[in-house]
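Q: What does the assembly look like in three dimensions?
Context provided by user:
Components: two
Sequences:
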Amino acid sequence: MLHVPEGFKVEVFASGLPDARSMRLGDKGTLFVGSRVRDKVYAVVPGPNGNVVKVIASGLHRPNGLAFHDGALYVAELSKIWRYDNIEANLDSPPKPVLVYEDLPTDEPHGWKFIAIGPDNKLYVPVGAPGNIVMPSSRHAQIRRMDLDGKNVELVATGVRNSVGFDWNPVTKDFYFSNNGRDWMSEDLPNDTLHVVKAGTTTAPNFGYPYCHQGNFTDPEFGWGHSCDEFAKPAGLMGPHVATLGMRFYTGDMFPSSYKNAIFLARHGSWDRTKKLGGDVVVVKLKDDGTIASYEPFLTGFLQNNAYVGRPVDVQPMPDGSLLVSDDWNGAIWRITYKEP
Amino acid sequence: MRLLVGLSALILLDSIGVPVCAQPATEQLSICLSCHGENGTSQAEHVPSLGAQKSDYVVAQLLMFREKQRIAPPMNDMAANLSDDDLQSLAEAISKLPAPETSAPIEAKAAEEARALIARYRCGSCHGADLAGQGQIPRVAGQREDYLTAALEGYKSNARPGYEPAMNEVSRDIKDEHIPVLARYLAQYRSEQSTAGQVPKP
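A: Here is the predicted structure of the complete assembly.
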């Protein structure tokens, strides 16, 4: 059974999307959904008998990342980013995609991507570390941004092990991203983390990987000779091995006012802990200065008797103020609404 | 908190199917076993044994072959016309075959070295303390040595992307010279006769 706070309701929005991962909403209301272990990108459109799922692209390699801008859908494979122009008018016969960017490593570990287009009209692309705890090359463990044609690439953040979710604070325009911490050091450490890069930052902050974890302790292997003081600190600790993935700021009007401008964050759930943790959506409420005020469960119940019955991947606020949650375990999209009790 | 939606009925399989193959499951299985070996033990070089393989793992592999997400001739052609139901019934039948016959036992020192590596690389964390697999994680105990070597090398070089990329991540840390040691040990390792402590639990 799923649980949400008093007054909220959760229902199935769409099903039959195996491995549903990152979501993006088109201007005309199409919900696009990527996948990671499958090769497909889906579109969910309203039909006479409920929502209809269409496959709009196949044969892609881990097409996890999606962005939408000016009528075009951007799709990030493991090492290539494509653009499908005027996609919503052509869902049944999508155009041949235009290659936007491919100067990316081809490593499988942490190679799948979350992408987004920022308020600066730049395309943000993470490159994960190519393993659990490895000395990354100058091309790994970072977040890049670039013009929408893939040119003028610059670094936004370094020392980032693997970010699979980010968004911009609607008030401050600061860049917030989630990060997955290393494995096999302890069942309870390090935490996955939430980070901030302030708007207008010109030199990419280094968040410490592989030397320093969660801002306050050094790696047993790589950390010697370093202090965590050398690196930028995380904004929040989100739980050990919980796999913090997709996140969005909520700017809608349906939910109570305390949720305004809060972050909804999907925690996919741990895979290596003895006692599983995560597999939920949490809400992170911020103070005026953008630091974390509170962090609480929002959608829970996917973890039962130490086994998953669902695993949230991404969240998507809708124009009516409802919130969608993708679930790659069930191949489904959930919809959460609120009505004052 | 309010209880809202029951989930148990919501296990969704891909419905993007192709026409159901006309052959009954037993005939389909006998086609598989003509290469993969009768009773689950392969006698053919680089062809994996299927005996007692986890059904979820088999479904995932057959799906990847059918959808050409994993290119491994002749399996893409073999799986091309299988329906979702075929994948499921074949996987179930394969999982019920007896565990593969293991290769000849290796000398104690080599076995000890391999057990230390299995602990170091935490193989048992996913494949089970007895290395017989669980869920979509495959049985590796008793698998053919040449197949295991090729699989580990393929994962390590990214030539074989996993369904989940977990093995691509893990095998990155496995030293090249350790791959044959692991493969040789696993090929002769019999889960069913394991005693407590034989494989160090991570």
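Follow-up: The domain at 8-338 of chain A is CATH 2.120.10.30 (Neuraminidase).
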